[in-house]
């Protein structure tokens, strides 16, 4: 997927210059960084300054220590990630519409069954597409439309590159997509992100509704199959066989 920003690092500071801010990414990131400074200092970069009305807008923050989590994190890193997520989720929602309004995620799954797949569709992918179409007639969409009883501040961008491990703790960066979410959705986003396929141990750190978690994982697996289609934004950035493997994952999740 195309990046929405470029970074400049100097003198212990990171300046994010946005190349795309149509969804208010810059304002959302600044608002969340300021909220985290008040309620969870040390979890994320400290906000320093912002030029929110400039073209292009920028947000400057402190540089936090650590290296991105690998795709096979050790137990200490998994526990550190779970601790960081719980800390983020403890931050109160504060009434800013761009951050605090909740909406369901069904729109992320619908394009898979509404967009024509270019060229001849391999059999395994065709079966995944058929199963995804049938999913809409099942109970999961109604379940995921229900407003969660417990809303949290969600990160919503679970690429492992956004979780920095310094040997002792995990810090979180990149909040331009952060908004009201719920723990189940946040865990499903992580479990189904292509960068985090070996984080299954993370799910055992949390006590959540298994039915909603399974439904959410199915949704996000379908979202990734859509991105990986030929011509899709993730197709050229991954090995050629990734779409077929993702179709297999979709089928597995829909059949369990």
Describe the protein in words.
With 256 residues, the protein is an alpha+beta fold. Helices cover 40% and strands 14% of the residues. The chain contains ten helices and nine strands. The protein has helices at 25-39, 75-89, 97-100, 110-114, 123-135, 140-145, 183-192, 200-203, 210-227, 242-254; strands spanning 5-10, 13-18, 47-51, 58-62, 67-68, 152-154, 163-165, 170-172, 179-181. The strands form three sheets. Strands 1-2-4-3 form a four-stranded antiparallel sheet, covered by helices on one side. α7 crosses α9. The longest helix has 18 residues, at 210-227. The model has no long low-confidence stretch (mean pLDDT 94).
- Tally of separate helices: 10
* SSE sequence, one letter per element: EEHEEEHHHHHEEEEHHHH
Mean pLDDT reading: 94
By DSSP, the count of extended strands is 9
Principal-axis shape equals globular
Oligomer: single chain
Helix percentage range: 40-55%
How are strands sequenced across the largest beta sheet?
1-2-4-3
Structural class: alpha+beta
Low-confidence stretches: none
**Share of residues in strands:** 5-15%
Distance between the termini: 29 Å
Write the layout of secondary structure elements.
Layout: E1 5-10, E2 13-18, H1 25-39, E3 47-51, E4 58-62, E5 67-68, H2 75-89, H3 97-100, H4 110-114, H5 123-135, H6 140-145, E6 152-154, E7 163-165, E8 170-172, E9 179-181, H7 183-192, H8 200-203, H9 210-227, H10 242-254
Antiparallel strand pairs: 1-2, 2-4, 3-4, 5-7, 6-9, 7-8
Helix pairs in contact: 5-10, 7-9, 9-10
């Amino acid at each position: 997927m195309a990046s929405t920003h470029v970074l400049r690092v100097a003198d212990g500071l990171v300046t994010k210059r946005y190349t795309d801010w149509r969804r208010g990414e810059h304002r959302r990131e600044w608002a969340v960084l300021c909220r985290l400074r008040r309620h969870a200092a040390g979890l994320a970069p400290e906000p320093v300054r912002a030029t929110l009305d400039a073209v292009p807008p920028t947000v400057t923050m402190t540089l936090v220590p650590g290296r991105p989590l690998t795709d096979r994190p050790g137990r200490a890193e998994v526990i550190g990630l779970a601790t960081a997520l719980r800390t983020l989720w403890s931050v109160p929602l504060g009434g800013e519409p761009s951050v605090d309004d909740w909406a369901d995620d069904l729109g992320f799954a619908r394009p898979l069954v509404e967009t024509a797949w270019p060229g001849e569709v391999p059999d395994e992918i065709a079966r995944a597409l058929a199963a995804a179409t049938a999913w809409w007639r099942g109970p999961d969409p109604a379940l995921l439309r229900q407003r969660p009883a417990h809303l949290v501040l969600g990160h919503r961008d679970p690429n492992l590159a956004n979780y920095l491990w310094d040997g002792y703790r995990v810090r979180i960066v990149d909040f331009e997509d952060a908004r009201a979410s719920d723990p189940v959705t946040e865990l499903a986003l992580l479990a189904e992100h292509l960068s985090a396929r070996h984080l299954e141990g993370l799910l055992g750190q949390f006590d959540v509704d298994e039915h909603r978690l399974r439904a959410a994982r199915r949704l996000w697996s379908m979202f990734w199959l859509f991105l990986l289609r030929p011509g899709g934004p993730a197709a050229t950035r991954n090995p050629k066989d990734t779409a077929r493997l993702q179709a297999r994952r979709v089928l597995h999740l829909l059949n369990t």
